[in-house]
């Protein structure tokens, strides 16, 4: 058997096992402390069988929890591909970093081809700067610290 009740602070609908009656908890929606009420006929919720009859069905009104915390983005929108940005005409400054290690395949070093392809997609008129970079990383197989290079391209796109 469960107890159904609302958080007195944010009005979020909550439901707990009847064994938790009288305990203090933090509301999962607003994080404020609240006391779980004692079991009584008004807040009693019985298993699934009681909900199958038409008389037991009731309309539920859900409320959205309100918080004073700033809104956070859960999914960040990806930048449009280079081709779309160029066609769009919204020319914001953007960066593209290309690491040498990401351009290596078994027996082939494709760094020059990858950089040339990216520069071709950006277009010469949109390039603001091209800067060489050096970085270090730990190779997983040998656990050695290795130094490598790459380029950072700043462009309008």
Describe this structure in words.
With 157 residues, the chain is of the alpha+beta class. The chain has two domains: 1-72, no CATH class; 82-156, no CATH class. 15% of the residues lie in helices and 34% in strands. The longest helix has 12 residues, at 111-122. The protein starts with a strand and ends with a strand. The model is unreliable at 48-52 (pLDDT under 50).
Topology of this structure?
Layout: E1 2-6, E2 13-17, E3 24-26, E4 33-35, E5 44-45, H1 48-51, H2 82-88, E6 93-99, E7 104-105, E8 108-109, H3 111-122, E9 127-138, E10 145-156
Antiparallel strand pairs: 1-2, 1-5, 3-4, 6-10, 7-8, 9-10
| Element-level helix/strand string | EEEEEHHEEEHEE
Helical content class? 10-25%
> How are the strands of the biggest sheet laid out side by side?
2-1-5
The overall pLDDT average reads 81
Portion in strands: 25-35%
* Overall outline: elongated
| Number of strand segments | 10
Radius of gyration: 29 Å
End-to-end gap:
60 Å
Number of helices: 3
Q: Uncertain segments of ≥5 residues (pLDDT<50)?
A: 48-52
- How would a crystallographer describe the biggest sheet? 3 strands, antiparallel
- How many distinct folded domains? 2
């Amino acid at each position: 058997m469960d107890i159904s009740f609302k958080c007195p602070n944010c009005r979020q609908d909550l439901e707990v096992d009847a064994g938790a009656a009288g305990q203090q908890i933090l509301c999962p929606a607003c994080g404020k402390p609240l006391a779980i009420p004692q079991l009584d006929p008004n807040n009693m919720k019985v298993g699934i069988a009681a909900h199958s009859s038409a008389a037991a069905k009731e309309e539920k009104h859900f409320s959205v929890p309100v918080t004073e915390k700033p809104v956070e983005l859960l999914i960040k929108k990806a930048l449009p591909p280079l081709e779309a940005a160029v066609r769009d005409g919204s020319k914001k400054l953007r960066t593209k970093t290309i690491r040498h290690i990401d351009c290596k395949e078994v027996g082939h070093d494709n760094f020059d081809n990858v950089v040339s392809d990216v520069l071709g997609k950006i277009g010469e008129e949109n390039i603001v700067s091209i800067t060489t970079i050096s970085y270090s990383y730990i190779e997983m197989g040998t656990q050695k610290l290795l130094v490598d290079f790459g380029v950072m391209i700043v462009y309008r796109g």
